[in-house]
Amino acid sequence: MSTSEKTSPPTTPVTPPPPAPGPIKAKRRPGDLIFSGTALGAGTIILIVLAAVAFFLVIQSLPAFEADTTGNHILRGQSFWSYVWPLVFGTLWASLIALIVASPIALGIALFISHYAPRRLAAVLGYIIDLLAAVPSVVFGLWGGLVLAPLVQPFYAWLHEYLGWVPLFSGTPSATGRTILTASLVLAVMILPIMTAICREVFLQTPKLHEEAALALGATRWEMITMAVLPFARGGMVSAAMLALGRALGETMAVTMVLSVSGVVTFELLTSTNPTPIPANIALRFPEAHDVGINTLIATGLILFIVTFAVNAIARWVVARRAEFSGAN
């Protein structure tokens, strides 16, 4: 028998490996289903309400854009955009001044609570800041018109006497102190709690490794804050400022009780002729409005809605970018 005719030994069949187990699905408990359904429903309701508000504003604003301005007792012959432009300027101008005044104060209070104050004092200050946000706006308006305005009027006269060459402080100072600067100071006090609370939480989220590393290298506490805390919290501070700006843009009663409607565009802060924000204009003009005048005021509310929505969208974009931070977490 030749070698090729020899019988080869039997081979053992190779068994294929078992398939990898698929992902194990967690058991859905009734409580999980109820919670997820409730959360989904709440989010859907928010979107529906927002869409309904936008639809209402757009539909009710159309007559203001289409009607003849000669018969509009609000526009009084001028175009809608000529009427709303000074109001948009007043809204942005007052809110910007309030933000400039409140930002350094809020950052200082937040840093003191998070990194300097003893624990018990920090807790008390945190409660006070949170309670300040619960004060009604009408109370701030009364305080601004009856207490703050007479209190700062001598200071306005001093500013005009010694710094009248600066365009912001030119013009005859108001004898009552009810100026755009006073209204902005009231707004600054109102947005202070939300800025302080957000900045405080962001500062407390700074990785301890970053702070301890800076201190271990010989940095002082302030140097540690500038090198570790503030860079980490930059996005949070910007988002806090934007959210506070959105609050200031929509404030009504506090500004209404301090200012009167003038509808001018001016950068002077101390005179009695002041720019008027959109919310205050709506609150002051609405009792006498009728027919297409109501649609005109609603149209200005639509412009305010768009501006506020844009500000909050920018804030959310900043927060989303900050969420991508990959520090020592």
Automatic annotation (TrEMBL):
Membrane topology: Multi-pass membrane protein
InterPro entries linked: MetI-like, MetI-like_sf, Phosphate_PstC, Phosphate_Transport_Permease
Single GO MF descriptor: phosphate transmembrane transporter activity
GO cellular component, one term: plasma membrane
Keyword Membrane appears in the UniProt entry: yes
Biased segments, Pro residues type: 10-22
Entry's localization field: Cell membrane
Membrane-traversing stretches: 33-60, 80-113, 125-149, 155-173, 180-204, 224-245, 252-272, 292-315
GO terms of biological process kind: phosphate ion transport
Chain positions covered by the region annotation Disordered: 1-25
Main location: membrane
Domain ABC transmembrane type-1: 88-315
Keywords per UniProt: Cell membrane, Membrane, Phosphate transport, Transmembrane, Transmembrane helix, Transport
Similarity annotation: Belongs to the binding-protein-dependent transport system permease family. CysTW subfamily.
Role, per record: Part of the binding-protein-dependent transport system for phosphate; probably responsible for the translocation of the substrate across the membrane.
Protein name: Phosphate transport system permease protein
